[in-house]
Structures are given as C-alpha cells and as structure tokens.
Amino acid sequence: MPKIKTHRGAAKRLKKTASGKFMFKKTFASHLLTGKQSKRMRKLTKSAVVEATKEVASLRRLLPYI
Question: Helix (H, G, I), strand (E, B), or coil: what is residue 19?
C-alpha cells in the first residue's frame, strides 16, 4: 500500500495541537484594516480551533502525518 500524500494547502493553513485538535488563523485581517474596529482586529489576531466533527474527520484525511 503506498503512502498517502499530505494536502499541501491544508498543511500550510492548519496546525495540530498536542491534544490532536486543529488550529487555524482567522480571515479578514490582512488588508483594508482602517475600516475595522480595534476590538474586531484584536479578535482576528487570535488563532481558532476547528470545532465541527465532520470537518475534523476530513482534515485528518487531508493531513495524515501531521
């Protein structure tokens, strides 16, 4: 049985925590920032956890060795 290839796009965007959860960077924080409130920008700087069970199952298939 051959090895499964890692999905490189997903590997660049997601990190796996020690407990096995997937973390990602929030969107809308790269440009056109002057119109966004400071509170909103603070919230966008934090990483978030992928919550949905269906999404986690598909991410495990995309990232088998990470």
Answer: coil
pLDDT digits (tens, 9 = 90+) for 47-57: 999 998 889 99
Non-local CB neighbours of 4 within 8 Å, separated by 6+ positions: 64, 65
The model carries a pTM of: 0.80
CA-to-CA separations, 17 to 49, 50, 56, 60, in angstroms, rounded = 9, 11, 13, 13
Q: Which one, of 12, 21, 28, lies nearest residue 51 by Cα? A: 21
**Contact 43/25 with Cβ under 8 angstroms?**
no
* Interatomic CA distance for residues 22 and 16, integer angstroms: 5
Please state, in angstroms and as integers, the Cα–Cα distance from residue 39 to each residue in 34, 42, 56, following that order: 12, 5, 29
